[in-house]
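REVIEWER CHECKLIST
Item 1: Sequence provided? yes
Item 2: Single chain? yes
Item 3: Sequence as submitted:
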Amino acid sequence: MYVIFIRRTESDDMDLDKLKEGTAYYHLPGLFEFYELYHMFLPIFREHREYFYDWCDIGSVYGAPEECIWGGGRTSFGNRDAGEVLALMREYGISARLTFSNSLLERKHLTDKKCNELCALFEKSGEKQNGVIVHSDLLTEYLKINYPGLYLVSSTTKVITDFGQFVSELNRNDFLYVVPDFRLNKVFDKLDALSEKQKDKLEFLCNECCWFGCKDRKQCYENVSRKNLDENCPDHECTAPDVGNGYSFSKAMANPGFISVNDIRNVYMPIGFSNFKIEGRGLGSALILEFILYYMTKPEYQIHVREKMYLDNMLDLF
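Item 4: Structure as written out by the authors:
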């Protein structure tokens, strides 16, 4: 039985590590889904730091295991043991985030045993504070009360495209970070006018491939939420012009909301932004590696990282 009605006090708040000056923090996908990839990559990142840009670091790795009714955004098929996942993140000093962004939760869902056990485990996982990416206000309040040691991230699945509404979300004390809809990525006149505190909370989604003119994004996410609740419902029918082609990084790069590595270094960081989310939980390991190579790895060393990853016979990248 899980206690719901406990008051949180200021003394319960955990201080985050002080951010390094002039550093871009990447929030990477596939905490459970791509465990094998990170198990291979993280030693390379530590032992060969010269391969990677000195102005970037890993802020977190996010994801959710299979069959989590609080899950959202994507239907997860990650089946790695949570203890193993947390041990890997602890070893490399990386924050782990649970993606619990289901938008359709009801009070009856809050007592789910698996999701509560995961939150309890992540809250007491060690020195590095872990978090939860959340959509539902009901779940937000529940987590604040029952797991105050976890920081909260406002999910992009809220599809906040109105800048005034987004600022209101930024100003909520509930969230350490807020991820806007990718269509707000380039409104620089408004973004630059934000306060330093607001800029510190903003986490941009860099590599979205979704059609920039999509009007059904919220319905698409709701469909995933229904499936995670094990509701019998048809798949969402996407109406994007090139829906049959699926995700490709080259298509994402042509998206008006795409944030390139040069944008991060030369546009966003100089005006005070430091947090950047890479999507890809529903993609394959090979694409996640390409994102890491593009965003984090110096061009002259990309072949070195790629060879070290591909030559590991234990890692299935396709």
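Item 5: Key structural point noted by reviewer: The chain has one domain: 21-310.
Item 6: Recommendation: ____
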